[in-house]
Amino acid sequence: LAWLMLQQKKEGAVAMAASAVALAPKHPAILDTYAMTLKEEKKLPEALVAEKKAVALAPDMPQFKLNLAKIHLAMGDTAQAKKELDALSKLGGAYGNQAEVAAMMKALTQ
């Protein structure tokens, strides 16, 4: 529900995601959603902590790493964002969202 609220930019997504995290604090997808709701509300340090937890729990989920790169970019940390994007780029066809990775990499060089 929090993810849908986030997509629709409705209020309450952070609270909904926080409730889910309280129920399942080690579920990587829930932590990822929570991080992205925090990012949307510009609570970037908290978003970074939550996304790093999601990546640590599910290191083989490239989407979480992409979201981590997005948070780093929002924080102005282009070096860390580039590091994450480089790793995703190396996955090639194993990660189907290469177009977004390439677009973000291009934006870093402009």
Short descriptors:
mainly alpha, single chain, 110 residues
Question: How are the secondary structure elements laid out?
Answer:
Layout: H1 2-7, H2 13-23, H3 28-40, H4 44-57, H5 62-74, H6 78-90, H7 98-109
Helix pairs in contact: 2-3, 3-4, 3-5, 4-5, 5-6, 6-7
Structural features, described:
With 110 residues, this protein is an all-alpha fold. 75% of the residues lie in helices and 0% in strands. Helix 3 (28-40) packs antiparallel against helix 4 (44-57). The longest helix has 14 residues, at 44-57. It is globular, with a radius of gyration of 14 Å. The protein starts with a helix and ends with a helix. The model has no long low-confidence stretch (mean pLDDT 95).
What series of H and E elements makes up the topology? HHHHHHH
Strand content: under 5%
Distance between the termini: 36 Å
Poorly predicted spans: none
What is the compact description of this entry?
75% of the residues lie in helices and 0% in strands.
